[in-house]
Design brief:
mainly alpha; single chain
Length: about 600
Amino acid sequence: MTLSPMAKRSLDLEGYNLETRMQIQVSRKIKGIKKSSSQARKVNGASLAIRKPSYCLKKGVGSFSQGDGSLRSQHRHRLFRLLQKYMERHMWEEACAVLSVLLQATVKDDSSSLNRIKFKAIFQLLPHTKRTSFQEIWKIYDLWCTKLSNHATKERRLVQSESIIHCLQLGEIKGAREAALGLMQERGFESDPYANWVVSLVFCRLLYSGIPDGLQLKGMGPSSVRMPSEAPPDFIFAPNSVSEQGATSFLSNNDSGTSIAFHKNYEDEDNQENKFVLTDGSLQEETTPMKLEPFDVRSSEKHSQSPDREGGAPRASIFCTRGLPLWLLPMELPNSDQDLEAARYAHGKLNIDYYRNAVKHLHATVDMKPDKIDAFLPLIQMLLIGDQVDEALDEVAKVCNSSSSECHLRIKAHLLEHFDGGKHDELRECYENILKKKPSCSYSIERLINMHQQGIYDTTNLVKMIALHLDASPGAYQTWQCFASCLLTLSNCEVDRASTCYDASDSYNKIPEIFTTPASRLVWRVRGRWWIDRHFDYKNLQKDTSSDDLKMVTYKAAVASYIYGPRFSYVTSAIQRLEEKDDMELYSFLQMHILNSAGFCS
């Protein structure tokens, strides 16, 4: 049967309508399912909100702020601010409570910076609790390491280094050694200067604890360490004075008072210089020894030097010198010859493995950061303890070629003075550069005065250095005495020079050339006007004449007569005071200088 075209078209329309209706029904069913699942989620969310309040914190339910994240993140920030506030105000109980809540709220947090804040707060709060044993402190460091992600290798090394420093603080040298061996296995240790520095300190302490009692410093614990007057305030390196800020101290440059941290994220505001000296402290307990190999101490005659590495020249030795400062050689060397030979023998029994490891890691640190005195001074100390003086001199020469800091120059000056005193020009240059960087350094000016008295330092240069020193310091009476003597010498030289061409009786010829040359005349005139208020005013006069010893006022008056003339008020008051005291020796000294002075600023 054949259908007409009209019938075919009607059948096609009916089929199309049936398909369309089926699609519409399917889409309606899907929408219903979605609608029911959305409602189910809402119901489920409401149920979770009732049973678990933390669900609201995760979803931010009830938060009226916009764009600030969830309530949980806001509460964490508030807790961190509260913790910082309580710690700054030393409200320890409140800080403990806040820290407890914060630790529970951030159990799964692996942020290095936030974990550092929390664990630093823990260690700061520990002294205010009874839980301060080494085992519990070690567990805290272990917990800290487990909180770090696998990629935070730099932070992991830093935490392990701080744990080692804490061990040294507590005198747990065995635990520090084990931790150091573990730190040496960490990835990136070879290129980390701070980690190498900390490991070297452990071997330094191990080596020093093995030094015989007769060579160790007596009564020099961390609280009783004192330094000679020539040592700068930040040169004493006490191992037990290491604090938790040791990382910040090492990682910051502190040559001229500025601080630039390697790890800037962890720079501490209280940037104290905590450095290390090899003293005995509390390390008298026995440690687990490594393989012992004695020092190869070369045999030598009594009071003679050992053969050197080159050409048979004498090798410098710590046993052939006296007077090294304790901050440079922390050993108590005997004075008698018999005891010195016994000290040589005892020195040869030191653990060579500890020494080699200490020097190796200190060398690595200095090579990576040659300007860091924190590593350079312990390296020189170790080389001197090992009686490797020539190597210490070479190391100082190499570092000072690239660094001219005051600390490096001072170490170089001491080594040259005690082991290579023939290099007068180099020694003079060291002390001059130290004074230019720190004009108030009294030790450097004393050494230059001593060199002048030996005839190896020029008078004109000494006058310039003394003037530079007095610009920054009141000066000792010995300094003023030497200053007056130098001015007398220059005045007499000027008179002798002028007498060949002019009338020697002319007072102008008494003025030293150092005050009249165009390059220095203006400087000295400005200095002369400044010194009237700094050194020669009425207040200083009353202070100088109030003492029974009139040396200070006499020597200062002698200098003032060359600068301001014999009629200057300070000079006349000093003469009157000496006449009242009837001190003829000082009076004659002052009169001699007055007769040879002219006063270029008068």
